[in-house]
Structure formats: C-alpha cells, structure tokens
Design brief:
Layout: H1 2-7, E1 25-28, H2 34-38, E2 44-47, H3 53-57, E3 67-69, H4 75-91, H5 94-102, E4 119-122, H6 126-137, E5 142-145, H7 147-151, H8 154-162, E6 166-169, H9 183-186, E7 193-197, H10 206-215, E8 218-223, E9 243-245, H11 255-270
Parallel strand pairs: 1-2, 2-3, 4-5, 4-6, 6-7, 7-8, 8-9
Length: 288
C-alpha cells in the first residue's frame, strides 16, 4: 500500500474496510467478495498476481468491471530460476545421485548432452517467455505451445508433447486447459519425461500423473501448484520419491515494480485511456 501511495502522490490510497469511502480503483489478491458489494463505483480492479481464475469464477465480481492483472513485476526472473534449477537438477543427475546416497551406493552415471533434453514450454506469456529465454541461454533446446497452437487441434498439441523431454506448464487455468494433461496427454510425452508445473494445479489430472510416475512414463515432477491448496497432509505427492513439492512459491509479486506498473495503468485510465487498451487487461472470454 505504501509503495503504491508513493507512486500516486495525488491519490488517496488506503486499506479497504467495509466502511471505507467509495473508491475509483481497487488492488488486491484473494479479495473478499464483500469488497465488490461495498464498492459499486469501481472503474477497474487490479489483480496483484498473474492468476485470475478465482476472480473470474466469483459471482461477486460485476461482469462488466474491467480486471487488469500484473504482468511479470519481478516474477519472470523467479520463475526462470525455479524452472532452470529443476531442469539442471535432473540433467546433472542430481536426483539420481540423491537416491544413490540414500542407499550408500557409489556409482558414476553417464554424462548427458543438452541436445538430448528438449524443453517444451506450455504457455508463452510474459512468464513463459522469461523461462524459455533462460533455459535457451543454458543451452537447452526450447520450443513452445501457445493458445493458437492449442486451438489448431489435438495433432499440434501431440507433436509438441512428443518432442518435450521436459514439459513446463505456464499457462492460465481456463475451461480449455482444466484437466488437459490427463492420462492420454501424459502418454504422448517421451517415456521417462519430466514435468514442471508452476501455473495451476488443475491443469494436471493428479491420478493420471501418479499412474504415469508409477509406470515410469514420467520419471519425475517438480510441482509448485496443486488442485487443492494447501496440499493435504495425506496426499501421495508428499511421500513420492520422484516428486518435489513446494508450497506455491515459484514466484512472488515484487512490491516495488508491481506498484509502479499499477500506478502507470491507473494514471493512463485517469488520462482518458480505455481499460481495453491496458497491458494485462483480462479477457473473460479467454479466461486470462
């Protein structure tokens, strides 16, 4: 709040309460539905994170209220760190050596070649492009799949999956992507593939992934997001030797760049720009 106030010195910026005066704009994440009931005059709502599926699913959000999400704001570099660390851990056989250590086993594993580790990025938005650029800079072959590729049909997606030894999920959760990576899709990956999910847990059918891990179709997975969060203490992921669980921490919104970004967009609206013209404007039709 202080960072945004510093970027908008002529505006009144305060934490919302039910008795707060009518506001022109609201900024938040995991917003209580009562906000929209008590603030009917809002010109736009600014989401402080990249994901907007909960907002779009809420009946409390007026259907005509423009929603604008933060783009990057320090998250791209963090996502690139997280994904490249996972890929390098697998590529350098770190996970295999950890298994050998647990068995007190001294055995050298063969050197691997980056050219044999093509990485497929599912979702090439701002964050997806940051991850792709980092992995490419590390020498890994990188290719992507976009919304238009997905709309082209099952064959296009199938070709993308077949050529992805590592699959990185960075797409928003929409009706088109919910549960997309089921048993049939995971079977299209090369046998022994690797999966990173840093977008939304519901993109992946959990039972299908567990079966793929059990069969060896998927060798290992790094999961930061889950269909139900927090992840239940009895969930099989916690104890699976080929799964790394992190609690939705692959990227945080960095306050200062996010505040500057939001301030510029609010100033643009006040100067007469249309909400439709703003970067990060959410399309209800597309779901992001």
């Amino acid at each position: 709040m202080q960072a945004l106030a510093a970027c908008l010195p002529d505006a009144r910026v305060e934490r919302w309460q039910q008795d707060s005066p009518a506001a022109d704009y609201a900024v938040g994440w995991a917003v209580p539905p009562a906000l929209f009931t008590h603030q009917p005059r809002l010109k736009a709502f600014f989401c402080a994170g990249a994901g907007v599926d909960d907002l779009l699913a809420s009946r409390a959000v007026p259907p005509t209220l423009p929603i604008v999400r933060v783009e990057d704001a320090g998250m791209g570099e963090q996502m690139a760190d997280y994904c490249s660390a996972a890929v390098l851990h697998w590529f350098t056989q770190g996970w295999r050596y950890a298994q050998q250590q647990a068995r007190a086993q001294w055995r050298e594993l063969p050197l691997q070649q980056r050219s044999d580790w093509p990485v497929g990025i599912f979702g090439l938005g701002v964050l997806g492009r940051a991850v792709a650029a980092r992995l490419a800079s590390l020498g890994f072959p990188v290719h992507g799949c976009t919304r238009s590729d997905l709309a082209s049909g099952a064959q296009e997606l199938g070709r993308f999956l077949q050529s992805s030894r590592v699959l990185v999920l960075l797409a928003p959760l929409t009706p088109l992507t919910r549960g997309l990576f089921d048993a049939r899709r995971l079977a299209q990956l090369p046998r022994g593939a690797f999966l990173i999910n840093v977008s939304r847990g519901a993109l992946v059918a959990e039972d299908a992934l567990l079966e793929a891990l059990q069969s060896g179709q998927v060798a290992a997975a790094a999961l930061d997001v889950f269909e139900q969060e927090p992840l239940g203490s009895d969930h099989p992921y916690w104890r699976h030797p080929a799964v790394r669980v992190t609690p939705h921490v692959a990227a945080y919104t960095v306050i200062e760049p996010a505040a500057r970004q939001l301030a510029l967009r609010i100033q643009a609206l006040e100067a007469g720009a249309s909400a439709e013209s703003l970067p990060g404007r959410v399309s209800r039709q597309q779901g992001y």
